[in-house]
Amino acid sequence: MNFPQIIGSVREIFLEALSKGKITNAKTLEQEASARLRKEGLEPDEDSIREYKNALIDLYFASYFSEEEIENHINLARKKDRFKHLNRVINTEGATSKKIKHALEGFCEIPIGDLHIPPSQAEGARVALINHFISNQLPFIGIGKQHITIRDVYQLVANMYWSRRRPGKIGGKAAGMFLAYKILVPTLAKGDPDIERYVRIPESFYFNSGIFSDFIDYNNLDQFHTQKYKSREVLEEEYKHMAELFKKAIFPPDVMDDFHKFLLKIGEYPLILRSSSLLEDNFGYAFSGKYDSVFVANQGDIEKRLNDFVWGLKLVHMSTYGPEPILYRRNHNLIDFDERMSVLVQKVVGRHFGKYFFPFAAGVGFSYSSYSWTPRIKKEDGFVRIVFGLGTRAVDRVGQGYPRMVHLSHPTLRPEVEPGQIKKYSQKEVDVLNLKSGQLEAMPYIDLLSEINHPDMYFAVSLDQEGHLSPPLFKSKSINPNSAYLTFENLLTKTVFPDLMKKILYQLQEAYERPVDIEFAWDGEYLYILQCRSLSTTKDIGSVNIPKDIPQEQIIFTNNKVVSSSIIKDIEYIVYVCPKAYGKLSTYDDKLAVGRAVSRLNQLFHDKRFALFGPGRWGSNDINLGVKVGYQDINHTLILGEIAFEKEGYTPEVSYGTHFFNDLVEAEISPIAIFPDQSDTVFKEDFFIQTPNQISSIASDLTAFESAVRVIHVPTSSGGSCLHIYQNNQEQQGIGFFAPPE
Q: Cα 416 to chain center, whole Å?
C-alpha cells in the first residue's frame, strides 16, 4: 500500500522467494485460484485468476515469512526500482555530479537489509560510479568494482567537494586509501573480525580535481597547461617564483564559501592536506614523495583558519608543476597525460599533549620484503618501518636516528644484538605538530618525554639499566626519559599489532594480486590506513653466484649488509663524492652545490653506464648526513652506493621503506651500502681518491668541485677493464671488481 507503483515488482519477488523455499509456485497458485473461484461459484477468467493469485501470494508470504523478511523483500523491490533510475542517470552522457548524487541518495535512503541487487546487475553501475567520482585507471577499476559498492560511493560522495563548473575525481592517493579500507572492512560481505575490530581510516574529505581546474581557469593561468614541456632548467627557475603568483591567485567565491562551511563544520581540529593527483599511486608509477602534503593546525578564529587552509591547498596544487614530478613523468612516458591535482583532507590521527598533537606511532608496511639480512626472514610475510609520533621520518630520510625495522615473520628479530648497537640504531627525534606555532617540529625524544605524560610509553620504550636494555615489565612503571630508548618491544610482543599488520598486508596483496605497500598510523587501540598502492619490487633474477678466486688487486669493494640481489656489468664511469671531503665542507650552500654537481653529471651520463658512490644517506633532507638529491638527480645511474665511514659520523640507514627507495626500484637502480671500517669489508679508498679525476674534461663548469666530486673513467684507470658488481641477497654478500668488458 505504501508503494503502489511497484506492487507488481514486489509480488514477483515474493513469488520468487516462495518458489525458492519450495512453499508454492506460480502454476500451483493459478490452479489453486481457479479451484477456489469455482468453489465460490465464479467462472475463472484471466483477470479474476490474476487477482486471486495475487491475494494468495500475499497470504502465503505473510504466513511463512517474518515481518523483517517481508520488509527486506519489499525493500529489494524498491532498490530495483531506484537502481533502474540510478543506472539511467549515471549512463547519461554529460550527467553532472549533482544529478548522480541525487540519484544515489534516492537509492541509498532505502535500508540496506539482507537482500541486494545481484552482482551481475550492480557491476556496471559500480564501474560507472568509480569512473565518474574516483578513478578512470583500468587496473584500479578492475579491482575496485569487486569491493566498492554503490553505498560506498555514496558514503564517499557525502564527504566530497567539487566545482560547479568543472568535473573531477578524488585522485590516486584517496582512491587507494578508500579501496584498501573497503577490501579490509567490506560493506556487504563478512570480513575478518579482528580487522573490523581494529582497522579504521581517518575522517576524510575529498576536494576533487575539478577545484584545481577551476582555480587555473578562474585566474587565467593558461600558461601552466604547457609547463610540463619546458626544459629542466626553466622548470627549476620558474618554480622558485611560482609561490608569489599562487599567493595572488584566488579561488572562485562559491568555492571559497564551500571552504568556509567545511571549516565551520569540522571545528578546530588539526588537518593534513595530502596530494592526490590523478596519476599518483598508480599501478607501476607510485610518484613517491613527488607532490607536497601540508599540515594545517587549524586553530584560532575562522578567518585565520580559512587563510591557512587556502594557502595549504595552493601549496599542494602548486606542487603539480614542480620539476621533480614533471621530470618523473617525462622519464616514465607519462608527460602527455593531463595530470590534475585533487586534495585529500584528513583529520590528523592522534591526540593532544599540551601544545603538541601526534599519534602514538606511524609508518609504512610492505606485503613483500625486498630487504632481508638473514635466511630466517620470510619475505612474503611482509615488513614494517615504524616510528614514534608522526610518520614523516618513516617515509622520508630525515634527521638523526632510525625507524624500527620489523620483519613480520620474526617481529623481534633485529640485526643489532649489543645494547650499544640497539641504542645507536634507534629513533632519536620525534615529529609532532605544534598547535601553537602551527608548524611541524622535530623534537629530541628525551625532551618530548620530559615535557609530556604519554599513557602508552610502556609499549614504545626499552630502559637502560646498568648496560642492560629491556622493555618495562609493568604499565605503571615510571619511565625516566634519560634512560629510555624507542624500540617498540612491548608493542611487538604484547599487542595485536604484528599479527594484525600481517593479516592486513596479506588481504590487500590477495585483492591487488600483487605486492602492496601502505602508510598507517597507530593510536589508542586502532590502526588507521592512510594510503595503499601497488608496490614496486626489484625483479627476481634468481640465485646470484658471487665469482670466486677474484685476484685481490682486482677487487674494489665488498659489502655484507642490506644486500639486494643484482648483477651489474660493464660499468664505464664512477662518480664518487668523497665522504671525507664532503664532511669538511663548511657551509650549507657548499654541500647543496655538490648535489647540483651530481645532478649535472647524471644528465651528462644519461647514455653511459655509470655508478654513483657517496657519503651516508643519499637523498637525506639532513644535508649533513648525505648529499641532497631527488629522483631526477640520480635517475640514470646503475648503482647508488652509500659509504659509511663511521669515524666521520656517517652511517647509512637502510633505504627500504622510504620514498627514495621506491624511486630506485622503479628506475632499476641497485642500492649498495659499504662499511669500510668493518674488518671483514674491502674498500680500496686509494683507487677512488688517487686515480685521475676527469670532472673538468667532462664538464668544465664543474671544476670547482674537484676536491669533493671525482669522475673516474674505469677503463683508463684499470688497464681497459670495467667495473662489475654482483650482489647475493640470500648470503648477504656482494663484491665489486675489475674485469674485461663483456
A: 28
Q: What confidence score (pLDDT) does residue 112 get?
A: 93
Q: What is the pLDDT of residues 590-619, one digit of tens each?
A: 999 999 999 999 999 999 999 999 987 788
Q: Which three cell numbers stand for residue 608?
A: 653511459
pLDDT of residue 333: 86
Q: At what angle do helices 150-157 and 119-129 cross, to 10 degrees?
A: 30
| pLDDT tens, residue by residue, 262-304 | 999 999 999 999 999 988 887 767 677 788 999 999 999 999 9
Please indicate, yes or no, whether residues 170 and 142 belong to a single structural domain of this protein.
no
Quote the pLDDT of residue 397. 56
Q: Would you state the cell numbers that stand for residue 108, as one nine-digit string?
A: 541509498
> Number of folded domains in the chain?
4
Cβ burial, residue 479 (10 Å; 0-12/13-18/19+): middle
Give the position of cell 602508552.
456
Whole-angstrom distance, CA of residue 720 vs CA of residue 572:
10
User: pLDDT at position 648, please?
Assistant: 45
Do 524 and 361 meet the contact criterion of CB atoms below 8 Å apart?
Answer: no
Nearest-CA neighbor of 232 among 341, 318, 324? 324
Neighbouring CB atoms inside 10 A of 7's CB total 15
Among all chains, which residue has been given the C-alpha cell 523483517? 68
CB 557 within 8 A of CB 736: yes
Phi/psi of residue 422, nearest 5 degrees: -60, -40
Domain match, 372 and 240 both: no
Residue pair 559/681 in contact (Cβ under 8 Å)? The answer is yes
Are 494 and 500 spatial neighbours (Cβ–Cβ below 8 Å)? no
Write out the three cell numbers for 400: 638523526
- 615 and 600, same structural domain? yes
Cα separation, 161 vs 168, whole angstroms: 10
Cβ–Cβ < 8 Å for 610, 619: no
For residue range 120-178, what is the model confidence (pLDDT) as tens digits? 899 999 999 999 999 988 999 999 999 999 999 999 999 999 999 988 999 999 999 99
Do residue 188 and residue 154 come from a single domain? Answer: no
Q: Residue 173 sits in which domain range? A: 159-348
pTM, two decimal places: 0.84
Buried b (16+ CB within 10 A) or exposed e, 295-315: bbbbbeeeeebbebbbebbbb
Let me know if residue 94 belongs to a domain.
Answer: yes
Residue 594: phi and psi, rounded to 5, are: -60, -40
